[in-house]
Amino acid sequence: MTTAASGEHAITGSRAADIATSVEQGVSAGAFPPGSVLPPMRQLAARLGVNLHTVAAAYRTLRERGLIETDGRRGSRVRAEPATFPRGALHAGLPPGVRDLADGNPDPALLPPLTGALTAAALRYDRRPRLYGEALVVPDLERAARTAFDADGVPAGPVVLTSGALDAIERALSAHLRPGDAVAVEDPGWAALHDLVPAMGLRVLPVAVDDDGPRPESLAAALGEGARALIVTDRAQNPTGAVLTATRAAALRELLSRRPHVLVIDDDHGYGIVAQPPHPLAGATRSWAFVRSTAKAYGPDLRLAVCTADPVTADRVAGRHRLGPGWVSGLLQYAVADLWERGTMDGAAVARSYGERRDALIAALARRGVPAHGRSGLNVWVPVPDETRAVTRLLTAGWAVAPGARFRVDAPPGIRITVSRLAAAEVEELAGAVAAAVRPGRPARQD
Fold first, then answer.
1. pTM of this prediction?
2. Where are the beta strands (DSSP E) in 255-413?
């Protein structure tokens, strides 16, 4: 067997499949950490004594599996969030005393208590257990979801359940696209989505985003390059906090009306935590899906997303889900329906609390001459000239933030700061640290 050493891991194999498997094992073992550069194809081919096309095929397989990305002359590197899960990754922690503003989690204090809803669900189940062959969506949840969709102007369609928003998006893409097809995604945008699309063998076409959502000229360019699907965040966009406005939505719908074959997916993960209403693109084309997750409003461990779609898409998503997991737990459905119908969470108060934290940090940064973005949601996006320097300096100062590279394709550098658990007393200190990290050596301006 031919081998080629790279760091502490020897890449082996004489066939493309074997070489790809060897690299994947190295990623899983941690020998190739996220962001690490793989050997150039020509160099690896020479070391292994194989044809250049064999290594090229192996790297192509790894790209399609979502493990690596290729950036022209910069070569191939392991993705920031590779599809292969590195062993021990869950145990990576922050240094003692560092405040974690990088994780993207909601504030536990703003999540509704689940004891009542889960107890009611268990009592209901005890009276009549759900068995094989029953309806996939319990009537109470379907009714509550449809009422909320109607109030937000989402087109009529069947209600489908999945295990979270990303599960719904993956199934909707699989229902219409094939490997090699292109998907237009927000840039910067949701890191998990940027990893999922190539892992499905699909191509990413970045669409620039401003505070009002995807920019029309950038979407037009992606459509012109053959995008077969568009995924847009209606509000609480991750990482920028953008909100799709009515005016911007109208402009995007006009563009999409000329491409009726394009699949449009609305991600409304901000439901229940933002004050701004959604302006869905659903219905702008023949194939569409509107996905509403419970994670940010009720807690990430409630693995449930409510989706509605055109009949063909809904049928395909539900059909594939039925062949795999089968259905979303009725206990979870009863609990979410109870939370939804009884209104155990004051969504306006939650949105106001998150808004106060975002606005306070953005204002404090502005006083120091540092522009930032964050109209809704849990995060503030700060453009920076050098992500590595900014993240490192902030970590040294006791603040952990997320590097923008996780969320970007072609967008300029930035850092994401999750404000969900940021205390009012910490705002000024954090803003000063950010200003110093972004522009080291220059005094921070204060009013």
1. 0.84
2. 263-267, 287-293, 305-309, 379-383, 399-400, 402-403
